[in-house]
Amino acid sequence: MFSGIPIDMKKIPAVMRNRELLRAAIMAELDAVSLYEQMAAATDDKNLKIVFEDVAKEEKTHIGEFQTLLLRLDKDQESELAAGRKEVEELTGRRK
Questions:
Q1: How many domains, the chain?
Q2: How confident is the model over 43-66, as pLDDT tens digits?
Q3: How far apart are CA 29 and CA 68, in angstroms?
Q4: CB 64 within 8 A of CB 81
Q5: Which pTM does this prediction carry?
Q6: Structural domain contains residue 3
């Protein structure tokens, strides 16, 4: 679990800093989604399950927000995501 930025920001060139901050934020949100979904699965309390699942869903929205900003800053990331999507479609013969 994250309690700090997992990279030494002093070693990151200024031009790349915001991209790396966004990637770290995405990693933290993915970690949070995993944690809350595991907690939801582990509890037998209906109310806790509802809240954990709702919070996990909110974290997924945060991932989308950070990813949107990252794609604006890193066009290579955008094209590589598209290439990955196409490869999965070719491998599975399915779209979304």
A1: 1
A2: 999 999 999 999 999 999 999 999
A3: 14
A4: no
A5: 0.86
A6: no
Q: Is residue 84 part of a domain?
A: yes
pLDDT at 94: 82
Domain-located, residue 20? yes
Q: Measure CA of the first residue to CA of the last residue in the chain; give whole Å.
A: 30
Residues 6+ apart with CB under 8 A from 1: 31, 35
C-alpha span between 32 and 52 (Å, rounded) = 10
Q: With beta carbons less than 8 A apart as the criterion, state whether 22 and 73 touch.
A: yes
Residue 9 contacts by C-beta under 8 Å, 6 or more apart in sequence? 17, 20, 21
Domain of residue 85: give its range: 15-92
Q: Is residue 4 part of a domain?
A: no
Structure tokens at 81: 């995501």
Q: What is the pLDDT of residues 1-16, one digit of tens each?
A: 778 888 888 889 888 9
Q: Rounded to whole angstroms, how far apart are CA atoms 14 and 5?
A: 16
Spatial CB neighbours of 23, under 8 Å, sequence gap ≥ 6 = 70
